[in-house]
Specification:
By secondary structure, the chain is α/β, with parallel strands linked by helices. The protein is 29% helix and 26% strand. The protein has one domain: Vaccinia Virus protein VP39 (Rossmann fold). The strands form two sheets. It has a seven-stranded mixed sheet with strand order 5-4-3-6-7-8-9. The chain has a two-stranded antiparallel sheet with strand order 1-2. The protein binds S-adenosyl-L-homocysteine.
Length: 216
């Protein structure tokens, strides 16, 4: 893979950042992170020229890299502060992970498809993004690493996974696309040990959150 980040790429990125500002992304740390992460390196080479359009693209294994707007919105809704422990479900290309690591969080990310897990962890390591990456089923979360300040789910979940709710700190925020074919992006706040507050943000479309690990 050609790992070049040229002035042209940087220019396209700052245009993308302006587009996100127009779409009401206001969190400076999110915009700075998107301005810094070389998204073109996270795509299959044939799509490189589209890397800085605000669109989702295939990344192999039937999956997609989320649209930059979606990555920005989810990151903004998480209200992360540097040093917080964040769990991501669905590492995919690793792009959302890189954005969160740029924002200074301690990132833990789970992917169920071994092919994507291997490719994205290698790329993130090569680019110097430090996080902890796991091949596993996001429905189970990471009990040994819990609790988390924030949890971000980047696949459409038919239900809110119970295990993930229990792995969220009191006061913590979970951002989850909820629904089967189409989803509503939900923001869930853990009020205390037993209570959660839910808010609907907007309609969205993610690939489905599936059970089990795919080893091939
Ligand atoms: N955050 C990714 C988005 C990838 S699409 C990015 O920035 O590119 C969603 C990903 O979630 C896919 O890679 C899919 O394999 C993964 N996924 C789906 N169900 C999962 C589960 N139960 N556990 C972990 N990953 C899952």
């Amino acid at each position: 893979m050609q790992q070049i980040d040229s002035y042209r790429h940087k220019g396209l990125r700052s245009r993308l950042v302006q587009e996100l500002v127009q779409k009401k992304i206001v969190d400076k740390s999110v915009l700075t992170a998107i301005g810094n992460v070389p998204r073109h390196l996270f795509l299959e080479s044939s799509f490189i020229k589209f890397a800085y359009q605000d669109k989702a693209f295939p990344i192999g294994a039937g999956q997609t890299i989320s649209q930059p707007y979606t990555v920005a919105l989810q990151s903004q809704l998480l209200e992360v502060k540097p040093g917080e422990k964040v769990l991501e479900v669905g590492t995919g290309s690793g792009y959302q992970a890189a954005v969160l690591i740029e924002m200074g969080v301690k990132l833990f990310s789970i992917e169920r498809q071994s092919e994507l897990y291997q490719r994205s962890t290698r790329l993130l390591r090569e680019l110097g993004y430090q996080g902890r990456f796991f091949l596993g089923d996001g429905y189970e979360g990471l009990p040994a690493q819990a609790p988390f300040d924030k949890i971000i789910i980047t696949a459409g979940a038919p239900v809110i996974p119970r295990a993930l709710l229990t792995q969220l700190k009191v006061g913590g925020i979970m951002i989850i696309p909820l629904g089967d074919q189409e989803q509503v992006l939900m923001r869930i706040v853990r009020i205390n040990e037993d209570e959660f507050e839910q808010e609907e943000i907007e309609a969205c479309a993610f690939v489905p959150m599936l059970n089990g690990v795919v080893n091939k």
